Amino acid sequence: MIDVPSRLERVGFRTLYRLADLTYALGIATPKRTVAGTYWSYEPTNPHGDDPGLAVLDRLPDDATLLDVGAHVGEHAIPLAAGTDRRIVAFEPNGESADRLVRNATRNGLDERIDLRRVGLADERGSLPFYRSTFSKCSAFDRDRATRWGARVAAVEEVPVYRLDGLVGGTDSPAAPGDPVPPPDAIKVDVEGHELGVLRGAEATIRTHRPLLVVEVHDGTAGGDPSRNVGDHADALRTWLADHDYDVEERGDVWVCRG
Questions:
Q1: What gap in Å lies between CA 230 and CA 233, rounded to an integer?
Q2: How many domains does the chain have?
Q3: What residue numbers bound the domain in which 67 lies?
Q4: pLDDT for 163 beyond 70
Q5: For the segment 175-209, what is each residue's pLDDT rounded down to a tens digit?
Q6: Residues with Cβ < 8 Å from 18, sequence gap 6 or more?
Q7: In this structure, is residue 173 part of a structural domain?
Q8: How far apart are CA 39 and CA 29, in angstroms?
Q9: C-alpha triplet 66, 126, 177: angle, nearest 5°
Q10: Which residue pairs, CB below 8 angstroms and at least 24 apart, start in 48-55?
């Protein structure tokens, strides 16, 4: 049985995503104030306004190269690009979120500045089933995560995935979309439990260029089911980062990792 707080949380999420559908449909953009500056977005809320990872990334030089893996609708990519010469490469396999990122970037005059790749990153090149959730930010390569908080799987799509090492090194080109990815100064990862796959596929890039890593760790319970703890995932991440000589500062769900 679902307890009252969980039920209310599910209702809140459902209301939020319906409101987002409405603001995009009506073209209602509002200013979002963040630790990295103010930008305009069609999103009804500003969940990353005081994000500690966003604050750390905003300290990068104005000409830095940032890879935004799991860019969603641009809550990190857009404020980090605005008013700077930073090169932002955004990876977002969810078509709905990618379309909304383009709209938000265009609203801020940044559609030519943000290099959007509509693919996923993993530890092997190929394709994976992607579970598109009725709560778009829950969409993931894991069905349970796509059904958190009462969401449903709206569609299952086979999407291409690449190793970041192949994109940065050029070994996946010309089949990979877009130009070769430049060596990064920082990599932000927010991929709904798929973090280890992204890092393993970027091992050579990380070893060679030692970028700042900002990882949003989706831990706790999967699918909103408290009986299914996935804390082992966080332990595996800590081990991988330690093995690659990265120090980890945990700021809640956001890990700031320096090599």
A1: 6
A2: 1
A3: 47-258
A4: yes
A5: 556 688 999 999 999 998 899 999 999 999 999 99
A6: none
A7: yes
A8: 10
A9: 45
A10: 48/75, 48/76, 51/75, 51/76, 51/254, 52/251, 52/252, 52/254, 52/256, 53/188, 53/214, 53/216, 53/251, 53/254, 53/256, 54/79, 54/80
pTM over 0.85: yes
Residue 188 domain-assigned (yes or no): yes
* 38 part of a folded domain: no
Three-state secondary structure of 102-129: HHHHHHCCCCCCEEEECCEECCCCEEEE
Q: For 200-248, write each residue's pLDDT tens digit.
A: 999 999 999 999 999 999 754 333 333 334 468 899 999 999 999 999 9
Q: Per-residue confidence at 43, pLDDT binned at 50, 70, 90?
A: very high
Which domain CATH number covers 62? 3.40.50.150
Residue labelled with tokens 């800590």: 238
Phi, psi of 157 (to 5 degrees): -125, 140
From the CB of residue 133, how many other CB atoms can be counted at a distance below 10 Å? Answer: 25
> From CA 68, how far away is CA 152, in angstroms rounded?
26
The H-or-E segment that residue 63 falls in is: none
Nearest Cα residue to 51 out of 80, 31, 25, 28:
80
Cβ burial of 117 (10 Å; 0-12, 13-18, 19+) is buried
For the stretch 231-254, what's the b/e string if a residue is b when 16 or more beta carbons lie within 10 angstroms of its beta carbon?
eebbeebbebbeeeebeeeeeebb
CA–CA separation, 165 and 199 (whole Å): 10
